Structure formats: structure tokens, C-alpha cells
Amino acid sequence: MQAEVIDGRRLAREVTDAVAAEVATMARKPGLAVIIVGDDPASHLYVRNKVRTAERVGFKSETIRLPADTSEADVLGRINWLNSREDIDGILVQLPLPPQLNTLRVMATVDPAKDVDGLHALNAGKLTQGSRALIPCTPMGCLKIIRSVIPDLTGCHAVVIGASNIVGKPMAALLLEENATVTQTHIHTRDTQFICRGADILVSAVGKPGLVKGSWIKPRAVVIDVGTSRVEQPDGTVLTKGDVDFDEAVKVAGAITPVPGGVGPMTIACLMENTLIAAKARMA
Ligand code: NAD
Question: In the prediction, which pLDDT does 72 show?
């Protein structure tokens, strides 16, 4: 039997429609500011999609585009200016940053109350303690997708491949909060395939196209593919590929997210939700 292919765009639309409905009732439009440094085409595409969605849900949105050689002092100065502004509720610094910029220092400068990417140490710490926090958008989007097919995760074995601060670690923390039993694997893990074969829920956040084979997947498992790699084809076209060998996995899994059209749209939807949460907290 073929797996259910989860429609991330439809789920994302449900989230953004709910955000837009609430924004329409607010006295002041929430404000989202995005800072992007450098010319990476994929990052510019992500930012355009975020800005377009922000405008659609009724936010005031502002994009600050900076050259690749921008100094850290300049970036931190701009973040501090956004921190001080009444009309800005959410600040997102598009990653990755050029090498002269220290990502942790940049994230630490964003006011935790406006940290809609959920990457400030205070929000990351709150997440691990299970208290209310702004939660990183991609793992939150993954969790919403998982809950759409498994409403109660209690006792499920969840395996997260990848342990970055942006995706893997907060994903594992969120699944733990949902009472799943969580195994986290990374580049140094021995026999990842064996571990994956025990997973009721498998989340892959690595960035290696085709890493996860059909034989790694437990029959009827829920497979969430966060990986987003741009792969050049023999004819010169570029395709976006996930970590999971989709054609193999779809024959084994119970439900699976496609790439594109799975986690990506939900990440943007959760950014909108976080901006609304931050705005409401600031207006309270
Ligand atoms: P990263 O490079 O920071 O982390 C990758 C992780 O994978 C590391 O923890 C590393 O140890 C692990 N890893 C590497 N090779 C491995 C292997 N062979 N087996 C097991 N683990 C291995 O990447 P990231 O920022 O976490 O992003 C991961 C992927 O998710 C990338 O493709 C990225 O583009 C994508 N991504 C997608 C979205 C989205 O919205 N769809 C958002 C963020 C990231």
C-alpha cells in the first residue's frame, strides 16, 4: 500500500488563514522585520516567500538587505534598532550568515520577546524546560504535520536524524514534550539505519539527498523530510531534493512529506504564527 503523501501546503494554509483572521481583528498590525546578509539565491527566495506570506496575512513587513561583507557591528546595530522599535514585533535574521558574522552572537542580540525564529538561548532553554517559548519554526511545523496524522504521540518512538540548533535539537525537545521516546542521531552515530528501522516517527534534517532509503523505514511509519538540497540535473536544471529516497519510502511508510511541498510551507506558516504570538504578548 502507498503511504499518504502529506500536503504541507494545505496544512500551512490552514495555519496562515487562522493567523490572518486574528490579525484582521487587531488594533495594530503585527510587524515582522527580516534581515538578509549576502547574495545566496536560495536564501533570497526563502525571504521573498516569507515576506509574501507576511503581507498576505496582514502583517507590516520590512526587509533589510545587506551586502555579504557587512560587519558584525553593523548587523548588531540594526538588530538593536529593530529591538527598540514599537512597531516591530518579530525579527528574523536569515541563516546561514557569511563567515565574518558569529551566528550565536547575532542571535543573542535579538530581543527574546521578538525572536520569532526561536533561536535565542533564552527561548532554546525554555523549550528544553517545557515552558512557554517562541519555538523554532521548522520543528514546530514538523510537529504540526506529525500531529495531523498521529494526534497523540505518547509512547511513540521518534528518531530525529540531525542535531543542529535550528532543526534537530529543538525537534527532539518538542517530541519529548509530546511524550514520545526520542532517539537523536548525527554524523557520528553508528548504524543509523538500524536505529531508524525502529522509528514510528522518523524526522530527517541532514541535507544529504537520498540518504534515507526505503529499507531504513519501519512499515507504516510517519516520515518527515526536512532536507532541502538543490541538485543539478544532467540537463542543467536544478531540482530541490529531500534527504529521503521518496520513491522507495512511499512504498513502506504510512505517511510521508514530499520535498518540495511538505515542511517548507509549514516553516513559513509557523513564522507567521510566532509573529502573531510575539505581537499579542507585546500588546498585552
Ligand atoms: P546542519 O548542517 O546544521 O546540520 C546537519 C545535521 O546532520 C548535523 O547535526 C550532522 O551531524 C547531521 N548529519 C550529517 N550527515 C549525517 C549522516 N550521514 N547521518 C546522520 N546525521 C548526519 O543543517 P540544518 O540547518 O539542520 O538543516 C538540515 C537540512 O534541513 C538542510 O537540507 C536544510 O536546507 C534543511 N532545512 C529545511 C528547512 C525547511 O523549512 N524546509 C528549514 C531549515 C533547514
Answer: 98
Geometric angle at alpha carbon 252, from 251 and 255, rounded to 5°: 90
Quick one: 94 and 146 in the same domain? no
240 shares its domain with 159: yes
Note the pTM of the prediction, 2 decimals: 0.97
Residue 126 CA to ligand 1 centre (angstroms):
23
Tell me if 7 is assigned to some domain: no
Are 111 and 160 contained in the same domain? Answer: no
Establish whether residue 275 lines the binding site of ligand 1, counting it when its CB lies within 6 angstroms of any ligand atom: no
Give the dihedral of Cα atoms 12, 13, 15, 21; nearest 10 deg: 160
Mean pLDDT score of the chain, rounded to an integer?
97
Active site amino acids: 50, 94, 117
Q: What's the pLDDT tens digit per position in 78-103?
A: 999 999 999 999 999 999 999 999 99
| 92 Cβ contact list (under 8 Å, min separation 6) | 32, 33, 34, 35, 50, 116, 117, 271
Q: Are residues 278 and 249 in the same domain?
A: no
pLDDT of res. 192: 97
Grouping H, G, I as helix, E, B as strand and the rest as coil, residue 107 is helix
Residue 47 vs residues 151, 267, 281: alpha-carbon distances, Å: 31, 12, 24
Query: Can you give the pLDDT at residue 1?
Result: 82
Question: For ligand 1, is residue 103 a contact (CB within 6 Å)?
Answer: no
The number of domains in the chain is 2
Are residues 66 and 154 part of one domain?
A: no
144 and 205 share one domain: yes
| Residue 187 alpha carbon to ligand 1 centre in Å | 10
Residue 192 CB less than 6 A away from ligand 1: yes
For residue 277, the enclosing domain spans 27-119+266-283
